[in-house]
Amino acid sequence: MPIVRPRLIDYYNIPVTQEEVDFAIPFLDEDIPLYLDPFLLWKSPSQQDNALHLILISTFNKLGTIYLQSEDKKEQLVNILVELSECSEVGLGSGKTKKGLRISTKTSNEILELFSMIPHYKANGFSHFEEIQLYVNNISKDRISDFACNFLKSFLIDFTQDECRKYSIPVKEFSDVSK
Hints:
Layout: H1 8-11, H2 38-43, H3 47-69, H4 74-84, H5 105-117, H6 119-124, H7 141-151, H8 153-166
Helix pairs in contact: 3-5, 4-5
């Protein structure tokens, strides 16, 4: 008999509860309605969380700086932001499947244009990445979370591997076919 809405621990028969682990136990075939909130990284008393927020902001502001300085790289930066707008691997958000949709090039351009249109961002960059949703339609907590997950993917991969080892969750290596 198949498991309805299987979670990772059900599939691998791992005897832990959500309260016992430091990660959200994912469903295998749909997102869970949780989000990575960059503001909480900034607000956290943890220096590691603060450093992750700084990485996120610095990386995004670097895209904005290049966008302002290099006319010939604008299209490439717009495409990079489109790619970063969905992080299906993490399984967070409001999707009914693990396959989400990316933003359009128009929306990506609107985001990068904030660096041109708003004098404070042009001079200083963003200090809070989630402010984007105040200026650009179709950008909400789910999309902000996806951007944040992609910018912080290296940390999330390391954390996931550590937790898998800790709880004997099977892992396997694979090649990134998108490259």
